[in-house]
């Protein structure tokens, strides 16, 4: 059965929701599901903007059939070739062999690589800044390489001020009937997933996001709708989300506060982390979050690392190295370009205590602009009363550093 919503009078959401996929990109848990958004414009000519993952193809076809109501599909605009959006192109071409595909050179190259037989169809290869008219609606194509793949472009409908933003401004989470961000409590229910989506999927490409934000900045007053490929459409309070994207892509924290991540084998390193968290709260801090690195998906840790100004890494020494799960978290932070953070260290060990020095070395040598506080809590096997002075000093140093920013 079809399930469509109007975005504007003549633009329809015709995408699909996915609650069956456990891991997005086979990597990131999505307990709230995900939507694959596709949009169908009913002008003098009809135009579909992107398709959906193969798992949502039947829903897409039913939706398109319903909206077209017997009209032909004239154009297929492809902004992004990753298979969660391009997976249904082949089937679309079988159903509507006369459809004209509009995309760019790199995207057509990828279509051929994926085996979509696009050369059996009419294609229009666009360049940066090209315009195209579907009748009443005139669109401009703006290239946005590496947001998130090299071929990505966004399409701006200058007639109604609709920005088809590809992966930008997307989020995990199925729509389930809602379409617009103003139909949900975004800050309460969606922001964490939006941050986890952006930081893990495109976090590495902050400078490229900044470039597209700069391009958008020139036409900000003309943008009335942002239609991403995942998650809600924005038609109100656009700057709320644009400013979040600006912060995340500049690697600037959203909140002043401490994220404590601990790696503990038997609970002793955790005990030190708990003592520090309690001490920080005793001293008046309210933004303290704590996670066990072993039981928290690293995508959540990455998202939180983008959120908080200060990180506390507490790790046991394991086989004379950093505990593997903590090391993996550090490697992920490096891969996703986490930077500009102040870090406090807690180290533990029974044979020898080495994890603090090793984490410090990693932060200094492998990551960008990470400031490590001089104060460090070092414990042998377990946190005991004789370390109370070190704990106090560490808590004070964290709070002073937060207040100094
Ligand atoms: Fe949602 Fe980069 O694809």
How are the SSEs ordered, and which strands pair?
Elements: E1 5-8, E2 11-13, E3 16-18, E4 23-24, E5 28-29, E6 34-36, E7 39-42, E8 46-49, H1 57-68, E9 75-77, H2 83-86, H3 89-95, E10 100-103, H4 105-113, E11 123-125, E12 131-133, E13 138-143, E14 153-157, E15 162-166, H5 186-201, H6 206-217, E16 225-228, H7 238-249, E17 255-263, H8 268-282, E18 288-292, H9 298-307, E19 308-318, E20 321-322, H10 324-335, E21 339-349, H11 355-366, E22 368-380, H12 388-404
Helix pairs in contact: 5-9, 6-7, 8-12, 9-10
Characterization of this structure:
The protein has 405 residues and is α/β, with parallel strands linked by helices. The chain folds into 2 domains: 5-249, Ribonuclease Z/Hydroxyacylglutathione hydrolase-like (Metallo-beta-lactamase, Chain A), CATH 3.60.15; 258-400, Rossmann fold (3-Layer(aba) Sandwich), CATH 3.40.50. 34% of the residues lie in helices and 27% in strands. It contains 12 helices and 22 strands. It has helices spanning 57-68, 83-86, 89-95, 105-113, 186-201, 206-217, 238-249, 268-282, 298-307, 324-335, 355-366, 388-404, and strands spanning 5-8, 11-13, 16-18, 23-24, 28-29, 34-36, 39-42, 46-49, 75-77, 100-103, 123-125, 131-133, 138-143, 153-157, 162-166, 225-228, 255-263, 288-292, 308-318, 321-322, 339-349, 368-380. The strands form 5 sheets. It has a 7-stranded mixed sheet. Helix 8 (268-282) links the parallel strand 17 (255-263) and strand 18. The longest helix has 17 residues, at 388-404. Residues 80, 82, 84-85, 148-149, 167, 229-230 line the site of MU-OXO-diiron.
